[in-house]
Structures are given as C-alpha cells and as structure tokens.
Amino acid sequence: MPPEAILSGLSSVEGRGPSQAAQCGGENQFLHGGPYNSPVMKLNVLAALFAVLAIGPAPFDLAQGGQSPTKVKVGYCTQLMNLEAAKAAGFDYVEVGATEIANLSDADFDAAAARIKALGISTPVANLFLPATLKITGPQTDPEAQMTHVRKALTRLAKLGTEIVVFGSGGARRVPDGFAKEEAFKQLVDFGRRAAREARANGITITIEPLRKQETNIINSAAEGLELVKAIADPNFQLMIDFYHLASEQEDPAIVIRAKEHLRHLHVANPTGRVFPQKWEEFDYAPFFANLKAIGYDKRISMEGNTTDLATQGPITVALLRKAFER
Questions:
Q1: Cα-based angle 39, 1, 222 (whole degrees, multiple of 5)
Q2: For residue 323, how far is the Cα from the chain centroid?
Q3: What percent of the chain has a predicted confidence (pLDDT) above 70?
Q4: pTM of the full predicted structure?
Q5: What are the chain's domains?
Q6: Rounded Cα distance, 161 and 124, in Å
C-alpha cells in the first residue's frame, strides 16, 4: 500500500491535513500507532486503508524513477571504495564512516577528499563514530584518547562538508558486565558534552543512534536516546532514528512525534533481513512515514543494510523512499 494512500486516508478519516495532525502531539490514534505488528497498529492501518479505498488513491508507480518532488535526500551508508557505485545507483549522497576517515594517512585522506570532489557526490553525514576499542563506559576509559580521536575525525569530516555524525558505536558504549548502568549513563552524558563542543567548533551536529539490544546494552530505544539528548542539553548533540532498530525493538513509532524538536537524521532498512526496501507492501512502513510527514521532516534518510545487487536494487530503494516522503 503506497504511502500517499495511507496519508490521504489519515486526512480523510480525521478531517484535517498533516500539518494540523502534527499539532495534536501524537494524540491521533493513527499517529500514536503502538508497537510494530501489534493489534492496535494493524487496526489503525486497516482503517486508514479502507478510508483511502473509498476515495481511490493514485497508484504507487516506481517506474516514474522517483522523480516526484521531495525535500528529503536519500543516501547510502558505505565505505569509500563504493563511492562510484553509490552515485551510479542514484543516491543523493554517501554516508561515510567517521572511523575510516580518521584512520587514513594524511596522503590517503587528501586523495579521498579529491576523489569525492571529482566524483561530485556529497558526504553530508558520517557514521561509525568511534572504534569498538575506544571505550566510553566502564572502569577503563581514557578521556584524552577519546578526544584525540573525536578531534581528528571531526576536523577531517568538516573538510568533506559533513554536517551530521551518527553516534552508534555499540561496542564503544557497551557497558561492561557488573558496571552500574546509572554510572554508564553519566559517562555517556559527559562524553556527549565534550564531543558536542568539538562538533560545534567544526560546524557539525552529533546524533545518538539507538541500537537494538543485540548490538549494545545501553540506549536501545529512541525514547532512551531522547532522554540522553535532553540530559546532555547541547544543540550540537541530537537524535537520529534507525527504522531497522526501531522495528527490531518493537518501539512505538509515535516516538517520532515526541522527538520532533530533536530529530536530525534517519536510517532505514527492511527489518526482515536488514536489506534494501524494494516494495511498500513487504513491511509495515506506513505508520513510521506517516509520523514523519506529520512533523514535516525534511532532512535526510540513509539506506543502511545489505544488498546482493546495488545497481539493480539501489534505484528501486531510492524511488520507494522518495515516494514515501511525497507531500
């Protein structure tokens, strides 16, 4: 079912447009949603579908090549070696690895920067902020080593035009067994404040990425990420949401509404296999994108997942995501 059909159904059922719905602060049942695959969620989606069928939605045509107007840019999380392939697949930008950039020799970094410029693809976002060996929680942390890495990574990324750095780094922030979670949270706050100051000096915003429990044991939900953002209380430390992790943790997509003022970036993948989305019907994407439309999200979304054929699957994913954000 296409996103424009769901969103048209929302307006029809509630008798108001998306901008008005956003002002409700998530009180609308469809916007509120509920855990993914919950009975409430399914009933809400079906109700919107029936409303749409009554007015006859336009077909969801990927053959249009994703040329519909949209403010949201669609990118691809990948290594430097795949820059050309990412551009050829039609992505608007590449989300590079901060640690990969930091680990380059000066000569290799200069060569990479020149290659990016010559290729004509932007790198406004970076992920993989910290290596797993650089611990930021637990009894054995090294604040000086942390900041040495942070400064080098952010300085280089600023030269590439990067504006957002995704702070996932599940290994680096994993809390050691037996160490108090409350103390670990305080360590995250301390690190976040120090990193945010360096980010501000480089014109960059750091965004915490909530990760599923299989990947780390602290900040596993967007709600917890929002709590961290508010505790750090720095404009250069904000929130991003990865749809794969949100769905894996069965978190209510209404968190998008709550996080409106702090949401700066998105990742996406089909949670079934963490692969490139290819069809709107393959997963229950509708509530998440309906909430994004309701808050007027107009930034970026990066594809982070697996593909067996980037040249074929990439353009389909780009077109699908652009359609999902149609106004």
A1: 55
A2: 17
A3: 78
A4: 0.81
A5: 63-324 (3.20.20.150)
A6: 6
